[in-house]
Amino acid sequence: MIAVTTYRDKRVALFGLGGSGMATALALIAGGADLIAFDDNPERVKAAGIEGIATQNLRELDFSKIDALILAPGVPLTHPKPHWSVELAKSNKVPILGDVELFAEERRAVAPDAKFIAITGTNGKSTTTVLISHVLKSAGRNVQMGGNIGRAVLSLDPLRDDAIYVVECSSYQIDLAPSLDPTIGILLNLAPDHLERHGDMAHYASIKERLVAQSGEAIIGVDDDYSAAIAAYHADGKRHIHRISNGSSVDEGVYLNGSHLERVTKDGQRQIADLEGIPSLRGIHNGQNAAACWLACHLVGLSDEEIQAGFESFPGLVHRMEPVGSIGRIVFVNDSKATNADAAAMALASYDHIYWIAGGLAKEGGINSLRSFFPKIEKAYLVGEAAPEFAAVLSDDVAFEISGTIGAAVQRAFEDASRADGDNELAILLSPACASFDQFANFEIRGEAFRTAVEAINGVEYFKEAS
């Protein structure tokens, strides 16, 4: 645990006692804060009490005597409307902060020489976070990984100057971190997502921008208009901007050229890494992820050889284009983390003959943006609430059936793929392009349902599970 000593003896209110909220409460108490916490869920309040956390309905507090409100990232700050605890804090001019802000403040106070690599983006941030952590660990570095993936950031081991902290940051966390100042800030890409929480795309982009605005070194993708504009805006000489791309040459940065990464500097261009034959880095989108990783690891001192070795040993990310197993020429791919169309596009671009399992709780825009991939889809198997909507989009171009559940979809896709002629690789791909919340609590449980359905098929050879 990282004890938050910067709030010692301060009166702090905390709202939201889920996983990260509980970890934050315990870290504040360990650091000596005078904390009172609450949640709208009585069971969470009870669980906090068992952990020794003082709880009270924050409506009963005198906010004029509160030094800060710590908000769990899942609690609305601005949209669709501010949570009542936010309104109480604002009316009393109380700062509203989150766990990543507390981490940033504590690092500056306790271990200012510790390297802090922060990663955000609409798509690819989890893969990039895990990839950076893996490459650094494989090179023998002391690495702590957490944030919006895995461990809550304040549940990581105590801060040390010789450690490297690799932290995935969601837009919700960045919105609550006004002094966020990573050693290396990475903004991969921007596409419409979470607009119900941020209002519109311009506001969403402005929040994501904050991660690189105060970073020592900034790594920014330039494959979408919003990110490219942010890179151009920050190329003001105040910090070093490294551009990354999954296919287009860049001015000073790293881009994917075929299966190779190329680095461009003012002194010229050279090949720096080879992704050929690395299954976990398959697909053009992984060029951007690998480019960001290469730059981050290079900037903290790794050699080309150490980075290449890390790439080659990378097992991949669970639920993100994860090859689960195969039988003959059929490969089963778990891409449950593709919760929007842009994420699904990356998987659809990576295979040529696809039996596509899609659906769930649809997001704005649905799958209309995926039409260019329809010729690659042998058949679609639709599940969840979005099934009728997706069927209407596919009806004139792609064979489909409404399967209803993941289990039924896997079985039907396997039956159809088994009857297919030819010897091409066939991908039974779960890439929902939807949130999971209609049928599953999260995308991880949805991915496990896919794995369970695959395990029910006799003769499947399973791949090593990613980690």
How would you portray this structure in words?
This protein has three domains: 7-97, NAD(P)-binding Rossmann-like Domain (Rossmann fold); 100-312, Mur-like, catalytic domain (UDP-N-acetylmuramoyl-L-alanine:D-glutamate ligase, 3-Layer(aba) Sandwich); 322-462, Mur ligase, C-terminal domain (Protein-Tyrosine Phosphatase, Chain A, Alpha-Beta Complex), CATH 3.90.190. The protein is α/β, with parallel strands linked by helices and 467 residues long. The protein has a nine-stranded mixed β-sheet with strand order 6-7-5-8-9-10-11-12-13, sandwiched between helices. The protein has a seven-stranded mixed β-sheet with strand order 19-18-16-20-15-14-22, with helices on both faces. A four-stranded parallel β-sheet has the order 2-1-3-4. The longest helix is centred in the middle third of the chain and has 15 residues, at 285-299. The chain is globular and about 70 Å long. Helix 5 (125-138) packs across helix 11. Helix content is 33%, strand content 22%. The chain is built from 15 helices and 22 strands.
Give the key terms.
467 residues, alpha/beta, Rossmann fold, UDP-N-acetylmuramoyl-L-alanine:D-glutamate ligase, Protein-Tyrosine Phosphatase, Chain A, 3 domains, nine-stranded mixed beta sheet, seven-stranded mixed beta sheet, globular
CATH homologous superfamily of the largest domain, by name? Mur-like, catalytic domain
What is the strand content? 15-25%
Q: Biggest β-sheet, characterized? A: 9 strands, mixed
CATH architecture of the largest domain: 3-Layer(aba) Sandwich
**Low-pLDDT segments, ≥5 res:** none
Q: What fold name goes in the CATH topology slot of the largest domain?
A: UDP-N-acetylmuramoyl-L-alanine:D-glutamate ligase
Strand element count = 22
The figure for the number of domains is: 3
Query: What is the overall pLDDT average?
Result: 93
- Helix proportion: 25-40%
Radius of gyration: 23 Å
SS class? alpha/beta
Distance between the termini: 22 Å
Coarse morphology: globular
